[in-house]
Write a structure and sequence with these properties.
The protein has 131 residues and is an alpha/beta fold. It has helices spanning 12-18, 34-40, 53-61, 90-93, 103-111, and strands at residues 25-28, 46-50, 65-68, 81-85, 114-120. The chain has a single domain (21-72, 79-118), classed as 3-Layer(aba) Sandwich (Rossmann fold). The longest helix is centred in the middle third of the chain and has 9 residues, at 53-61. The radius of gyration is 13 Å and the shape is globular.
């Protein structure tokens, strides 16, 4: 993902992902709160988690809540989140490789974080150049 997009407003494609978010939302790999910022408008409670202290500081500076840590650490309200935005969907949204470079492991972990009635919002598409 180009660095300028890290701080840019959400795109139309991002908004189709965000429309599927029902609170409370756990934004795994939240970065500087780019997607979290968009959830503030409709008043959806969301918590971000990221391993980068600077990213967490930027999220908090935008008015969001975020913890510095790994998705694989013990997190608040495990099995209580109605929506998870794991970095995995950002494989396609932001062109990242995903947390730990292991999408299967991340999805397994997310299953342990989301409520039994909750959802993982994962965007998928066909492979193409650069993917």
């Amino acid at each position: 993902m180009p660095a300028y997009r890290w701080h840019a407003r959400s795109t139309v494609a991002d908004k189709t992902v965000l429309e599927r978010c029902v609170g409370p939302v756990l934004d795994v790999g939240c970065g500087p709160g780019r997607l979290r910022r968009e959830l503030l408008g409709p008043g959806v409670f969301a918590l971000g988690v990221d391993i980068a202290p600077r990213a967490v500081a930027l999220t908090c500076a935008l008015g969001g809540l975020a913890l510095c840590g790994s998705a694989f650490d013990q997190l608040p309200a495990e099995r209580g989140w109605q929506t998870l935005l794991p970095l995995l969907p950002l494989l396609l949204i932001d062109g990242d490789i995903g947390i730990g470079g292991d999408p299967r492991s991340l999805l397994h972990r997310c299953r342990g974080l989301v409520a039994p009635t909750g959802r993982l919002v994962v965007e998928a598409g066909a492979r193409g150049p650069g993917r």
